[in-house]
Structure formats: structure tokens, C-alpha cells
Amino acid sequence: MTVNIHIHLVHRQHTDGKKVITAQGDTVGRALADLVRQYPAMEKELFKKEGQLHGHIEIYLNAESAFPGELEKPVKSGDDIQIVTFLAGG
Q: Computed over its alpha carbons, how large is the radius of gyration of the chain?
């Protein structure tokens, strides 16, 4: 399946400035793995060493939260995956 992954502004430095990346996969997790294959620096931005998403990363599938179990959610061709990063500051 071909999906579009929308990259959060803070991560675009790792995707050569691209806002949307086309990836392959039949689940959100496999599509994100294809994103990492294309842009290896994204791995540490998205995933902990155990392969789980960082707590500050939220995944939306077709504009709806994919939580919980976001990596196992099935996708179909043309779906949109949005990577949302929670930012904190003071």
C-alpha cells in the first residue's frame, strides 16, 4: 500500500525539508519503517530503543488519532499518516 506521511515541521530537517513522504506498508508501523528506511535519522526522532514510539509523538491516521495501538493500525493505499510532535517550552 502506498501512503502519504505528513512530516511535522521539527522533523523536516531529517527529510530534506519535505513536508510529505510517500511510503509503503500495510500498517502504520510498516509505513513508518519505510520512512525510516528512506530517512534513517527519523528513527531516533520517532522511536525508543525498544521500538516503541516516543511519548511526545502522536500518530493520526486520516485526521483521527490512531492511539492506542497506532503501529498495528492497518492502512490502505492513499491513506494519510500525520506525525504530530508535542512540544514543551517555557
A: 12
Cα 62 from chain centroid (whole Å): 12
List phi, psi (to 5°) of 17: 80, 0
Answer yes or no: is 90 within a domain.
Answer: no
For residue 86, list its beta bridge partners.
none
How far is 90 from 81, CA to CA, in rounded Å? Answer: 29
Model confidence band, residue 90 (pLDDT cutoffs 50, 70, 90)? low
Give the CATH number for residue 42.
3.10.20.30
The mean-pLDDT minimum among 14-18, 74-78, 83-87 falls in: 83-87
The single-letter code of the amino acid at 81 is I
6-36: b (≥16 Cβ within 10 Å) or e: ebbeebeebbeeeeebebbbebbbbbbbbbb
